[in-house]
Amino acid sequence: MNMANYLDCVPPTGTVSVYTMAALRRIGGFHEQALTEDADAGLRLYAAGYRGVYADHSIGYGLMPYDIEAYRKQKNRWATGNAQSVKSLFSLYGKIPFRSWLGFLANLTAWDHLNFLPFAVLAAYTIVLLPFIPTTALHRDLITVASVSIFITLASKFALFVVALRGQKKIVRRAFKAFVVHMGTTLLYSEAFGVLLFGTKSGFERTNKFIFSKMPSLLKNSYRELILGVWFAAGVAESVWWGTRTLTVVAFFVSSLTLLSIYYVAWKIAPTKTYSKKMLADLEDKYRQYLSPEIA
After folding, report:
1. According to the model, what pLDDT value does residue 295 have?
2. Which 3 state secondary structure label does DSSP give 215?
3. In the chain, domain spans
4. Number of H helices, E strands in the chain
5. Cα–Cα dist 266/284, whole Å
6. pTM, 2 dp
7. Deepest in the core among 41, 174, 243, 286, taking most CB within 10 A?
């Protein structure tokens, strides 16, 4: 967002975005079909001559999901909704300054990865590694391109976290933790680009912020990453056993760890439930006099 300030492309998005009614009325309000209606409105506001400003300090707080089911739904909506907005952004090409257009593109694609096809290549290559299947030069070229693509995605994402945390304490450690959390949902982020490419429709799902006594099933909400992660781990074993290239071994190993880090995400967000309960209790005490007897 600091980059967005520099490039003059601040999208007024998020829980504490502030708009004037005059500006919203001028662009026709929020579009109900947009999954990330704030990102969509931000583009239309910019096209209408308005500008956003990012304040680099906390002015409000909101609850974040504490279970992996709600977390996935939220991130899926962000990634898919922003992919929808990329289509709108292309219609603004040449109508707004190029550096601002490029900044919007970087912001809208922050939740989208290009790993879907590389992962598909790796998944197929696990079968190709079997000794009774002849390996051709095309197979090796495909795995090379897929591996390099995955490595570029990982390296660029990690570099962005390091840059974002510059000037703070324990930059590398904090950047690595944030990087692992972000990449833990890489399969979800990789699928979101299908919306942009194929125009797939998705329904709006509200992110749960209520405190439920029972946590949703972790296995139910992570079985795809588990299956593919274990499949890639089998690829590591095959690569080592049959003596294939080091590049192939590393690609399988890194991809397996990336997918299975979904469980690190679940572990890191679980304490949020305790924080949320305390925050809600404090707010109830503070505003109890304004609550109805049934709520209080």
Report:
1. 55
2. coil
3. 66-279
4. 13, 0
5. 28
6. 0.85
7. 41
